[in-house]
Amino acid sequence: MPFYDLDDEALRSYRPTVQEPDDFDDFWGRTLAEARTVAPEISVKPVDAGLDLVETFDVTFAGFGGHPIKAWLVLPRGGHDLPGVVTYVGYGGGRGLVHEHLGWAAAGFANLVMDTRGQGSTWGNGGDTPDPVGNGPASPGYMTRGVLDPEGYYYRRVITDAVRAVDLLRALPQVDPTRVAVSGISQGGGLALAVAGLVPGLLAAAIDVPFLCHFRRAVAIAGTDPYGEITRYLSVHRGDVEQVFTTLSYIDGVNFARRATAPAMFSVALMDPVCPPSTVFAAHNLYGSHDAAAAVGPVTIDVYPFNQHEGGQGHQLTKQLPWLRAIAGLTRPTTAGPATTPTLTTVGASS
């Protein structure tokens, strides 16, 4: 995949005007207020995953419309007053298996991994959350489900679920509600960005190669799905262009980014055909710009010039762990003692 987007200098200064509805804040304020009136119906059941150093739980909580949303909860064993991380997964994936989510808990965080409603059958090890809401004609995939009406659009439900996941983690007795962060890759990064713009007082946001940003440009230059789903829909529904992009403006990550204030660590890949680099930089460069008087935490972006949509993968996590531990005030356990080198014994060696 060649470089196909703006050059580095242009990306660093790219601050586009992105369509934003006049009632954006009212729309989301009303949506979340309605969601929070529903009885939580929280279920947290221990799961024996064969792991001794962490505690694992199968969680169900009430998302948009009170619909049951599944999640995994992984805690450092015996932990209390823990900082937390809510993790959102990529497009088409589900929460998978609980033992796949050990990194944050091993670093001292309570980690809630949210399943994505209606997804979980494209890659990975599956999901467990249906989407009980129907919709009108749509392209295969999730991007155009209910896209002619912001009220019934699929991602209105998913973003509400994502906010409610933060509400849940903050309410757990083992967790310090003032120290909860969000994280995600691709669709998960887009959801983390949306939550950062909707939920005050977050500890931080780790946002990797985020999807759902700057839709007009993304649809125009992305060479593949999921943005291609929108292209195919509009190639058939020729008269619906403006209504589709109006609906998408209610869930555009750039509009959420402008309202976010928590410290943030972005990542972007310059050969990414799925989430064009300029759409990621648009969100990064406009982060915290909605209110000039607001105090905005430090915002950084790690650039992977020769990677596609995989971005930094494990290399990015090695940067996120010390960054978030420092923000959360976590220190290394003093009882662990210094690392020791094991003594090797050669078996069967002749004397």
List the helices and strands and how they pair.
Elements: H1 8-12, H2 24-35, E1 43-46, E2 54-62, E3 68-76, E4 82-88, H3 103-106, E5 110-114, H4 154-171, E6 175-185, H5 187-198, E7 205-208, H6 215-221, H7 227-236, H8 241-249, H9 253-259, E8 264-269, H10 277-285, E9 299-304, H11 314-328
Parallel strand pairs: 4-5, 4-6, 6-7, 7-8, 8-9
Antiparallel strand pairs: 1-2, 2-3, 3-5
Helix pairs in contact: 4-5, 5-9, 6-7, 9-10
Structure description:
- By secondary structure, this protein is an alpha/beta fold.
- It has one domain (8-328): Rossmann fold, CATH 3.40.50.1820.
- The protein is 31% helix and 17% strand.
- It contains eleven helices and nine strands.
- Strands 1-2-3-5-4-6-7-8-9 form a nine-stranded mixed beta sheet, with helices on both faces.
- Strand 6, helix 5 and strand 7 (205-208) form a beta-alpha-beta unit.
- The mean pLDDT is 94.
In short:
The chain is an alpha/beta fold and 351 residues long. It is built from 11 helices and 9 strands.
Question: What is the CATH level 1 assignment?
Answer: Alpha Beta
Mean of all residue-level pLDDT scores: 94
> What's the Cα radius of gyration?
21 Å
Unreliable runs, pLDDT <50, ≥5 residues?
none
Class from helix and strand fractions: alpha/beta
| CATH fold description | Rossmann fold
Helical content (DSSP H or I, runs of 4+)? 25-40%
DSSP, total strands: 9
The CATH superfamily is Alpha/Beta hydrolase fold, catalytic domain
Largest sheet: 9 strands, mixed
Shape: globular
State the end-to-end CA separation. 58 Å
Written as H for each helix and E for each strand, in order along the chain, the element string is HHEEEEHEHEHEHHHHEHEH
Kindly report the spatial arrangement of strands forming the biggest sheet. 1-2-3-5-4-6-7-8-9
Beta content comes to: 15-25%
Query: Number of folding domains?
Result: 1
> CATH architecture, please?
3-Layer(aba) Sandwich
The total of helices stands at 11
Active site: 186, 272, 309
Pfam families: AXE1
Protein name: Cephalosporin-C deacetylase
Domain Acetyl xylan esterase: 1-325
